[in-house]
């Protein structure tokens, strides 16, 4: 197996080709619709991925707002390229020891999925031949590019997709690695290192969706697969590992199909609607009312191979269904899952007879109100089944939340590239590069060493701060006088433990002022550090102030004297155990006291009070 990454990071320097702010907004001030078609690239050939997308015949609706202008609407030529964005890209290139190009030439990359009003994305090569070292291993960085982000998809309906223009034009740095990654865990480590270098520039945007990874994976005998737009770093390893499993399954399937001499005939789909007139419910019930067509195609030799084999979650039936969905169908039904959906065994036999199939064969059914759409869906299904005879098709796949992926479109190629005629070339001067070299930020390893040295923190804690994008908040809180260890614990352990809100609610992101107040409550002994998670949870649930959060968490009004009294009560109730077990009684009694204290006093304070009370009981004369 080998894999490579393409990391896309948004920059916090405004838009790339206009002066609009790079802020996402729910305010809509205008809207318009467009239809897009595929055009030839510089070689005049039409890219296969663009052609597939254009064939879907969708209408795209665009919503403008405070963060968009005539440039995003494609009603005005692009302004000169954002110089701060170019400086950020060149800075990263120098950190990756890459060679900047002599002159920036902006290109157009055809994209007709509606994510850009122009039908293309503007992109520019900034540097080549970089390198990255992770845990003693070297990885090549063939290219570093600067490009504009796409519009934000907000909703879909039959035949129409709606985009918001606020994200369109935000600058993206794209870093591509060579195919030297050999495991899912390694892919995650490389992505973490690139992310740390990007944040070192102090020019990147933060938050969900501001950094996305495209993961390219292939195995021996397979084909390159691009998993497009992974947003969660923790899932990179799973996407890679599951893609390896999927390609392994497809190669084994190819071999089995070969042993069976399976084939995919070129016969047109057969209209079998008449066999479904009596089905009262389910996906085929519409055929009985005459409003839907049911089409079928036979797959000789595929019998039993469309479902998942023992011990695998992969199945060819799902692959075929994804291709049917690409033209707007909800899916398909195949013979390996029948009888079901109101289809009887007798109907299955009748279908086999109509299609001239035996029990060793398979068939696929699609149903839709549009005969043309059903026909196109089966055409795509047949094409995908034919590729199964060869192995693994090269394609772009969308990541799903559970770590699986789904077919999106064929892999794009060079046919979608051609020059941008509205932006003049930009020379990269020696003076500019020298200025940026003199201002290079700390590399991650240098930052780790400084933080460990200046704050006395263990190296593992420092690594979590650096690779968790927590350094700026840590340094701000530590420089305000809060203990470094307590700040690190707050950022690394306590904040991530806050329960997530309901679906659709924004993540809990307290300000530095609020975090400082929480730390101050712990330092002032109003709460114990063990009580910090409860206070943060109360703040996330809506408490307006830290004082109110402390009260709602039930952590207020428990003094040192209250603690001493509680410890005395618990120890006296277990005096016999203390006399017989001595210091061994400490652990069970500590648990009893901490359950009562519930974060209202520091654990060390509780421990000291309990040790003192145990010593008093042991020193007391027996009965």
Describe the structure.
- The protein is of the alpha+beta class and 623 residues long.
- Helices cover 37% and strands 19% of the residues.
- It has 20 helices and 21 strands.
- Strands 1, 4, 6, 7, 8, 11, 12, 13, 18, 19 and 20 form an 11-stranded mixed sheet that branches. The protein has a 4-stranded mixed sheet with strand order 2-3-10-9, with no helix packed on it.
- It is globular.
- The N and C termini lie far apart (74 Å).
The mean pLDDT is: 91
Into which percentage range does the β-strand content fall? 15-25%
Which shape, going by the Cα principal axes? globular
Number of domains: 3
Oligomer: single chain
Residue windows where pLDDT falls under 50 for at least 5 positions: none
What is this structure's SSE topology?
Blueprint: E1 2-10, E2 30-34, H1 48-55, E3 59-64, H2 83-95, E4 99-100, E5 103-104, E6 106-110, E7 120-134, E8 137-148, E9 152-157, E10 160-164, E11 171-176, H3 184-200, E12 211-218, E13 225-230, H4 236-260, E14 270-271, H5 285-288, E15 293-299, H6 316-325, E16 333-334, H7 345-355, E17 362-368, H8 371-388, E18 395-399, E19 405-410, E20 417-419, E21 426-427, H9 430-437, H10 444-455, H11 459-467, H12 471-479, H13 484-494, H14 512-523, H15 532-540, H16 546-552, H17 560-573, H18 575-581, H19 586-597, H20 603-619
Parallel strand pairs: 3-10, 13-18
Antiparallel strand pairs: 1-11, 1-12, 2-3, 4-7, 5-21, 6-7, 6-20, 7-8, 8-11, 9-10, 12-13, 14-15, 15-17, 16-17, 18-19
Helix pairs in contact: 2-9, 3-4, 6-8, 10-11, 12-13, 15-16, 17-19, 17-20, 19-20
